[in-house]
Amino acid sequence: MKLKSLAALAASTALLAPMAHAQDMADSMTLVSWGGAYQTSQVKAYSDPYKAMHPEVEIVWDSSSNEAVAKLRAMAEAGNVTWDLVDVVASDAMRLCDEGLAMEYDPEDLLAAAPDGTSAADDFGDLIVSDCFIPQIVYSTAFGYRTDLVGDTPPDDICDVFDLEAYPGKRSLEKRPINNMEWALLCDGVAKDEVYDVLATPEGQEKALAKLDTIKDSVIWWSAGADTPQLLADGEVVMGSTYNGRLFSVIEEQHQPVAMLWDAQVFDLDGWIIPAGLPADRLARVKDFVKFATDTQRLADQAKYISYGPARASSAPLVGKHADLGIDMAPHMPTDPNNAKNTFLYNYEFWADYRDDIDAKFQAWLAK
Known about the structure:
The chain is an alpha/beta fold. It has helices at 6-16, 36-53, 68-78, 90-98, 107-110, 120-124, 180-186, 195-199, 202-213, 227-233, 244-253, 280-293, 296-302, 348-367; strands at residues 28-32, 58-62, 85-89, 134-146, 171-174, 219-222, 239-243, 258-273, 309-310, 343-345.
């Protein structure tokens, strides 16, 4: 999964050689993320403190991460990569790395060691799942539901999403196959440890789509992480999936009548990739920012604003209270034992391999 073509690897390596002698850094950066509460947490924890240290740098945020793969492909084809640092999920980082669109890096060269001297590679550990992926957070995709619309028996099982009789009303699901296909198979009787074996077959894919067909007419499809919280706040859906940090925001910050359904939450990783082929001055600035933004303190600081677990082991003990609400953040993390009783582990390699094919089949199903 981490291999590239020899030509792409050579081009990427050639970029790094002159950087040791580059003194000048670009005075602007375009950072790409997901918008909403998550991007706000990055601004507060990463870019605002960096800007305070480097007031000469203009930082522009773009909220296009949900289209990152397609846009980077188009930019590379046109020979005009305008992004400097891109926030992506791990499976997309793998795809971009395999295609030579993301830069490979050495953790010991790019990332700061932990305060006790532990190397960055050891501090991030197995979360560095690709030669191009720079981890930031552990998060999950989970469901929120309206407490005032579910009657006296709140949903506590992922398969309640498919139960239109017990929980009538609209649901919101992400407009992509990832997670939806896995949940559909689980609720169609496939054992958890067999889901990806089944999903690798055309028959398994049809099985998942058939299960999703049972609720298709009751689904509002979302593309941005902020959509489900807004739909829940407006009472337009009875339950919906999104990233756990977005649900934390609508529950704890906006005080909406919403609660968490943690069952079968899907653990995933999110982090940065550096586009391949950046000019020397832009690459130098990005590397300086990344070393700062991924150090132990900065990753812990992000958890003050959103309920995602920091990717560094050394950051976890520093997670404390929410910066504004003053509440303990640990119970709101997807990794909290009370929330992680029945998790589903996302398979990065599977989706890096099968994403394009299953995407096409899923979109064709949606259009029916």
